[in-house]
Specification:
Blueprint lengths: L5 H15 L6 H8 L3 H13 L3 E3 L6 E3 L1 H8 L4 H18 L2 E8 L2 E8 L20 H9 L2 H8 L14 H14 L1 E5 L6 E9 L5 E10 L5 H5 L2 H15 L3
Antiparallel strand pairs: 1-2, 3-4, 3-7, 5-6, 6-7
Helix pairs in contact: 1-2, 1-3, 2-3, 5-10, 6-8
Length: about 250
Amino acid sequence: MTDRVQSVERALLLLEEIAASPVPPTAPEIAQRAGINRATAWRLLSTLEHFDLVERDPDSGRYTVAYGAVRLSMATNASSLVRRARPVLERLAKETDGTVFLEVASRGALVTLDEARSTSPIQVDLTGVLIPLHCGSVGKLYLASLPADERASYLAGLLDQPTVHTHTDPVALEEELRACAESGIAVNYMEHREEWCGITAAIRDRAGRDLAYVNVTLPTYKWTLEQLRSLTPAMQAAARAIEAAVRPV
């Protein structure tokens, strides 16, 4: 492509490498990973720092994404994510004959960005439905992504039990959430409403942080728990497809 500005492209590549690193990297590490010579990387990092997009720790010399990037993110909308994820949602709805949701976490709550419905006469409508985090597969993955102290605080509170199938034991839930964090998959079988079940996959960035969630909700009269869990490979493939669609080339 000839319409890209090389200096801008390199600066954004450096920013991507910093954001993707699980441990704040040094300038030489960033330059090496991005394939940019050190002198150029230094100048670009200084420019990014000037615009408050990255921050350099004066003691360690390591870089993190700065608050300027947050300011920019607050001015965005989710239309690009929805557009790129839509083909995956439609494919899952057709394959499972269920209702497929694309959700994100916002200010401690889960927000549905898009949904794809199958042709089945039995449809799930979640409009206006508030699902406690520990009762839904999306909520479980969100809880699994939280820092340990925040997750412990939630589990130490009063946990609603909408059905006899709801998991409310904090120790067992913590173990389940650890497995969810590792696999990127969570399930809910009759835990919020006995007529529903669901399976969710985490859509993650290069550093393994949750960006969004893809969920399939199904009627329990047609699906056993074992059958629901058998959708794990398809859900993981869907999450990887959305990650590839939204990741810069």
